[in-house]
Design a protein that fits this description.
The protein is an alpha/beta fold. 33% of the residues lie in helices and 22% in strands. The protein contains seven helices and ten strands. A hairpin with a 6-residue loop joins β1 and β2.
Length: 218
């Protein structure tokens, strides 16, 4: 299967003359697989996620999406249509309900969907949110429920890649397993799922593990 995402000798530093946070990183990602990106604190995991999501630009090397340098792709389109991001802290809007959070994601993406509310409900049920929780305010939901909403929000515009930043970091063991089952389901449906994690259990449930080595200042 062809790669959907390729990192070619990727480098990143926060300024000229400063040590490189990432150096010579070359990873390949295929659709239909789960990848765990691991590494000690300071190895650049969060930085890599920022680069993959288009929030930051590499200072060296390339990121290719379906063979095309993402620097040549409209950044807004890339971030709001092609990749979906799931955050450890959920990043949901607390004054909105679960349905409204997902509908807002659809609006921001600009993707045309005939019945946004119906689509939002479908996605929330797909990730296991119960009927009675669909219209509840975010702060009335448990951490596991909020993470389900966050995944549904990331799926709102049907991206090809799901980027998850420590998606089980704030969850208990049973809920962690349930969230990983959802990510496996998405991979089985053909999405490329990339998880940044420090959890051995999450790593074990991935198809591939990529390790980032810590960089030492010279």
């Amino acid at each position: 299967m062809e790669n959907i995402l390729e990192l070619c000798n990727l480098e990143y530093s926060y300024g000229k003359g400063l040590p490189k946070v990432l150096s010579d990183v070359s990873f390949n990602f295929e659709p239909g697989k789960i990848y765990a990106v691991v590494g000690k604190s300071g190895a650049g995991k969060t930085t890599l996620l920022s680069l993959l999501s288009g929030l930051a630009k590499p200072t060296g090397g390339k990121i290719l999406f379906e063979g095309k340098d993402i620097s040549k792709i409209d950044r807004y389109k890339y971030r709001s249509n092609l990749v979906g991001v799931v955050f450890q802290s959920f990043n949901l809007l607390p004054y909105l309900s679960a349905i409204e959070n997902v509908m807002l994601s659809i609006d921001i993406s600009g993707v045309k969907i005939k019945n946004k509310k119906e689509h939002a409900v479908e996605l929330l049920k797909k990730v296991g949110l119960e009927e009675e929780d669909l219209t509840r305010g975010i702060l009335k939901l448990s951490g596991g429920q909020q993470q389900r909403v966050a995944i549904a929000r990331a799926l709102a515009y049907d991206p090809k890649i799901i980027l998850a930043d420590e998606p089980t970091g704030n969850l208990d063991g049973e809920t962690q397993s349930e969230i990983m089952s959802i990510l496996r389901m998405l991979a089985d449906e053909g999405k490329c799922v990339i998880v940044v994690t420090h959890s051995p259990e999450v790593s074990k449930s991935a198809d591939y593990i990529y390790e980032l080595k810590s960089k030492k200042s010279k």
